[in-house]
Every structure is written in structure tokens, then in C-alpha cells.
Specification:
There is one protein chain. With about 100 residues, the protein is of the alpha+beta class. The protein has two helices and three strands. It has helices spanning about 5-10, 40-60; strands at about 15, 25, 85-90. Strands 1-2-3 form a three-stranded antiparallel beta sheet. Strand 1 (about 15) and strand 2 form a beta hairpin. It starts with 6 loop residues before the first helix and ends in a 10-residue tail after the last strand.
Length: about 100
Amino acid sequence: MNIEDSPFHRLVGLQREPAGGEFTVSLPVDARYHNHLGIVHAAAQLAVAEAASGDWMLRNFGDHAEEFNAVVRRMETKFKHPARGKIFGKAVGGAAVRA
């Protein structure tokens, strides 16, 4: 499975970045993702972060990814500055734990 195959990711336009780069997923520049202040909406930024975690699992577990029922249980965010333009996401994983 490719992260772009998810119905939600297709709906919002998330894209998978080429393998080997620093980032794994992105959201293109589009005014549809802006909030009332003209910056990228927090929900759009969180969607990129969540998609990056799913993409990490798919890239690291490959054919075995479907053996796991991985879901985000907790998400904590601290925004450094207003986001403008294309948004990129990456996930860095440690040791996998099977629950």
C-alpha cells in the first residue's frame, strides 16, 4: 500500500515524497488549506504529521505492515511559527513494539 492510496489522503491532496529524501510526505500550496488568517490551518499540518507516521510504518515494515494495527494514540504539537507554502512531514522511528 502507498500512503497516497488512503481515501482521506487523496481527499486532502497529500503526496508521497521520493524515497531517500529528508521528508516523506507533503501537502502542496493551496488556499484551500488556509485558515481565517491566511496561513496553513493547524488541522492540515497535523494531517501531514499523521500521514508521515503511517508512511514510516509502510516504508519500514513493507509487506508486513498489514500485520499490525497501528493507530495514533496521542499527538502533541507545538507550533514554532505560522506555516506558509508547501508543508513537509517526516517521521523518525525507534524500535518497533508489538502490542
